[in-house]
Amino acid sequence: MCGRFVLFQPESLLDAVGQWPGVSEVHAPQSLPPARYNIAPTQTIPIIRVKETLAAIEPARWGLLPHWKKDEQGPPLFNARAETVATKPSFRDAYKKNRCIIPLDGYYEWHTGEDGKKQPYYVTAPEGQLWAAGLWATGLDKLSATMVTTAATEEMEWLHGRLPKFLLPEEIRPWLEGDTSEDLLQPSGLRGFHTRPADPAVGNVRNDYAELIEGPAEKKLF
């Protein structure tokens, strides 16, 4: 699963998305998001939707609000399992017609060590940004989104049993165009992730600063 992530280079999105196949223009109608180091469910995230050759980077609630939702109560639908996304009532309509991409510079995952303690790790791509498969909806007259997850790859299963569905460059367009092939719902073909311990302070959603991704803070003796 993915319950916290990082996007600290939002200014790079315009150029990066502009290189996607078939995209000739990229707009951020409500401006680019600020740098964030601890994004949590129900908070605002940027999503990317594409219509023909125009890509739009837009703010959305992280936690899908299907059209039948009467309020924002209950657990937020911030992850959608690839195994059931096509059939589960919460996601099936969005899967059929409302695809998007969620950009990340990295994400956090917690691992329980042999000592029983949970340690957060910061995970990044081998190079460049990560593009997660997402779905969007407009229930309650609010743009919202969820991130699709799959079983973890062999490389990453030591950290957690689930992994966001990170799309390879050649998979971005098919995903956005509604391709329903089973290959797009298989674990990510991306390999070579970098992981390092993150500061446990990331567990508090009120903490949002660059040092979180640099590891546990050292205690000063003087």
Runs with pLDDT <50, length 5+? 218-222
The strand count comes to: 13
End-to-end separation in angstroms reads 40 Å
State the order of secondary-structure elements, H for helix, E for strand.
EHEEEEEHEEEEEEHE
Beta-strand percentage range: 25-35%
User: What is the CATH architecture descriptor?
Assistant: Alpha-Beta Complex
Topology, element by element:
Elements: E1 5-7, H1 13-18, E2 25-27, E3 36-39, E4 44-51, E5 54-62, E6 79-81, H2 92-97, E7 99-104, E8 106-112, E9 118-124, E10 130-137, E11 144-151, E12 162-164, H3 169-176, E13 194-197
Parallel strand pairs: 2-5, 5-11, 6-11
Antiparallel strand pairs: 1-3, 1-8, 4-5, 7-10, 8-9, 9-13, 10-11, 11-12
Structure overview:
The chain has 222 residues and is mainly beta. The protein has one domain (5-214): Alpha-Beta Complex (hypothetical protein yedk fold). Helix content is 9%, strand content 33%. It is built from 3 helices and 13 strands. It has helices at 13-18, 92-97, 169-176; strands at 5-7, 25-27, 36-39, 44-51, 54-62, 79-81, 99-104, 106-112, 118-124, 130-137, 144-151, 162-164, 194-197. The strands form 2 sheets. Strands 2, 4, 5, 6, 7, 10, 11 and 12 form an 8-stranded mixed β-sheet that branches. Strands 3-1-8-9-13 form a 5-stranded antiparallel β-sheet, with no helix packed on it. Strand 4 and strand 5 form a beta hairpin. The radius of gyration is 17 Å and the shape is globular. The termini are far apart. Residues 218-222 have low confidence and may be disordered.
